[in-house]
Write a structure and sequence with these properties.
Blueprint lengths: L4 E7 L17 H8 L2 E2 L2 E3 L5 H8 L5 H4 L20 H7 L3 E6 L9 H8 L3 E4 L3 H15 L6 E7 L40 H30 L6 E7 L14 H4 E2 L1 E4 L14 E3 L3 H8 L12 H5 L9 E7 L3 E8 L3 E6 L33 E5 L17 H17 L12 H4 L11
Parallel strand pairs: 1-6, 1-7, 3-10, 4-5, 4-6
Antiparallel strand pairs: 2-9, 3-8, 7-9, 11-12, 12-13, 13-14
């Protein structure tokens, strides 16, 4: 099929915390159905464990070092894309698509909707709202585009299951409930194995499960709109998230739970691929090339494997996956590389070992294997055997038996940093809000 409609659904902070990925206590029937009817990539990864840098990669096919988004794009952080025209919406509009964004926009500088549309290549942008409202507006967009001459690219973003402050929160806590979510423990709760299993962590996970359930219902409403409008068989559907769940040792860390993401695709002209679960490593870098290939953009720049070809065993996945973090709550530069078995993390500061992603003073869930409190990181490098030690608790960096693996991964990481022109190679990276105070500094928008 040439020039299919494209629906890209994404949410905050989900990781792979879905029934389709084996979390049986999560109620996500819409995404379960999409997974059964589509392709589920078992080992998909973000390029960064925080929102804006990861999304900048998702929507451009470039690493954060290349997009220029090394931290959050909203105030007071103010990071922005060096070249907003790299956004997939610009490419698809040039290819004749009607382009629209509904809900979360967090990949470039936070600006009024009309300015976001103009900079990124959207015909229409309508940001904000919780999942039920975003789903209503997205369903209306589907109906508006159905039957038009131009194919559409509809990008729909849900804030859930991001943490949302609520008057139901305990003192010192920011939970997942907001004003519209109820905890969900109908099937019990699944405490991730990298967290201590306690009554307080179970209460927190029940809130997370409730937020996922609300997001899933919104996804279901948008998918139902495709069916009702008669365009489901003409629409490539992609569902993903930005990075791992907002729990300790996940979001804001380069451990596996910080970088792992759900990635599900329904390809209507390849029904023979329905139900496949590729084991190859892939990343968000493959999403844009896959969409542009589907849109018939012959000769479009390829930055990573085509996901449909990977599912069809026509292309291999990535032999290595690279991760990076520079800024979130504070300057915490880290870089990582993993292959099929091992991961190397290099910490370029002595900031606390794992940044706290809970937005809370009081912690209901506690991580395994990390010092409590605001302890400085004394691990310059970390090396893990992900087969023998999937929780990444035993640092092998000083083990002579792993010296060859360590040196190989370090060389590969160094080469990648040079290849993406990582600004960390030049030393300290000033944040946009402080750059103006440094004599002779390059403006943040450069």
């Amino acid at each position: 099929m040439t020039h299919p409609n494209i629906l890209l659904l994404h949410c905050h902070d989900l990781g792979r915390f879905l029934s389709a990925y084996g979390i049986d206590t999560v109620q996500s029937p819409a995404l379960d159905a999409l997974a059964a009817d589509g392709i589920v990539f078992e080992r998909a990864f973000a390029t960064a464990p925080q929102c804006s840098p990861a999304r900048s990669s998702l929507f451009t096919g470039d690493y954060p070092q290349q997009t220029g988004v090394l931290g959050l794009t909203h105030d007071p952080h103010g990071w922005d894309m060096v070249d907003p025209s790299r956004h997939v919406a610009t490419h698809l509009r040039r290819a004749g698509y009607a382009t629209e964004l509904v809900g979360i926009h967090h990949e470039s500088r936070t600006l009024p909707d009309a300015e976001v549309a103009d900079r990124l290549g959207f015909d229409r942008v309508d940001t904000g709202g919780y999942a039920p409202d975003v789903a209503r507006r997205a369903a209306a967009a589907v109906r508006r585009h159905a039957g038009q001459e131009r194919p559409f690219y509809l990008q729909v973003g849900f804030i859930e299951p991001h943490r949302l402050q609520s008057d139901r929160d305990e003192a010192g806590v920011v939970g997942f409930l907001g004003s519209h979510i109820q905890p969900d423990d109908e099937r019990g709760v699944t405490v991730p194995p990298y967290l201590e299993d306690t009554a307080s962590s179970r209460a927190e996970i029940a809130e997370l499960q409730g937020a996922v359930r609300v997001m899933d219902a919104a996804v279901g409403e948008v998918l139902a709109a495709l069916e009702e409008a008669g365009v489901a068989e003409d629409t490539l559907v992609v569902f993903t998230t930005d990075h791992g769940i907002a729990m300790p040792r996940a979001k804001c860390s380069l451990y596996e739970p910080g970088l792992e993401v759900a990635l599900i695709m329904r390809v209507p002209w390849r029904r023979d691929l329905a139900g496949r679960r590729p084991q190859a490593m892939v990343s968000h870098l493959s999403v844009v090339p896959t969409l542009l290939d589907a849109a018939g953009e012959i000769g479009a720049e390829r930055t990573a494997p085509n996901l449909i070809a990977v599912a069809d065993d026509l292309e291999p996945g990535q032999s290595e996956v690279f991760g990076q973090m520079t800024y979130h709550n504070y300057y915490d530069p880290k870089r990582s590389v993993r292959d099929e078995r091992h991961k190397l993390i290099v910490n370029y500061s002595n900031a606390p070992l794992a940044m706290d992603p809970t937005q809370s003073w009081a912690h209901r869930s506690l991580p395994l294997g990390l010092d409590r409190g605001n302890m400085p990181n004394n691990r310059e490098r970390e090396l893990y055997d992900l087969v023998a030690d999937p929780l990444e608790l035993t640092n092998l960096i000083g083990d002579p038996a792993h010296a060859d693996v360590r040196d190989r991964l370090q060389a590969d990481l160094d080469a990648w940093m040079r290849r993406v022109d990582d600004p960390l190679l030049a030393g300290f990276i000033p944040a946009p809000r402080t750059r103006a105070t440094i004599p002779g500094a390059v403006p943040a928008s450069s």
